[in-house]
Amino acid sequence: MRLCYLRVMLLPFHHDDLLEAGCDEAGRGCLAGPVFAAAVILPRDFYHPLLNDSKQTTEKQRALLRPVIEQEALAWSVAKLDAPEIDQINILKASFAAMHRAVSGLQQVPAFLLIDGNRFTPYPGIPHLCVIKGDGKYASIAAASILAKTYRDAYMEQLHDAHPQYGWAVNKGYPTKAHREAIRTFGVTEYHRKSFQLLPLGEQLRMF
Predict the structure, then answer these.
(1) Looking at the DSSP assignment, which residues form a beta bridge with residue 76?
(2) What's the whole-model pTM score?
(3) Fewer C-beta within 10 Å: the chain N or C terminus?
């Protein structure tokens, strides 16, 4: 029996004549850990058969894609905002701020930004386009999603060593049943987002 695979055809760019950077974030819905963002400028002819929205790829595929993107991109940058910063300005603004930091870290200045999602705080001096589900439409946004996801996962695995009871090596800080049960049992750490609803309403949080 011959199997057929659906090839993802991502758009290489939006403008024919502008240097574009794709931007995406990872970790917006987590209870703990930073929100990460990446900005990536890809060559016009870049192609990889595995490249796709990070949520549509496996951990092994992301591990293969990350060094390829880092080696072949014209420029790339990853940035983060930690939990206290998220609590101070809210997660939406923190996501935009992380993207701004990532763009600022690029070694080449793009003329245009492709942003995953439907909202963005304009980056000074660079026009942008918001693209809903853009990480499944544009190669540069997909590449940014891969870098943001892999860097954040690696960071959460490091935090797991200091706080193994929360299972961050597995859940990466997302609101799983086991993660919430650990919060209920052990309290919260400096890495938890205190402005989030960490436990159901009415339950008392304990500081770790």
Answers:
(1) 40
(2) 0.92
(3) N
Q: At what angle do helices 59-72 and 139-162 cross, to 10 degrees?
A: 120
C-alpha distances (whole Å) from 107 to each of 56, 76, 132 are 29, 8, 27
Q: What is the DSSP letter of 58?
A: -
Cβ contacts of 36 within 8 Å, gap of 6 or more: 25, 26, 27, 78, 79, 80, 98, 148, 149, 151, 152, 155
Q: Which amino acid is at 20?
A: E
Query: Residue 168 is encoded by which pair of tokens?
Result: 């961050």
Contact (Cβ atoms closer than 8 angstroms) between residue 66 and residue 184: no
Contacts of 68 (CB under 8 A, 6+ apart): 48
User: Edge-to-edge strands of the sheet including 112-116?
Assistant: 75-81, 35-41, 20-26, 112-116, 128-131
- Domains of the chain in start order, with CATH, are 20-151 (3.30.420.10)
Quick check: 134 and 41 in contact, CB under 8 A? no
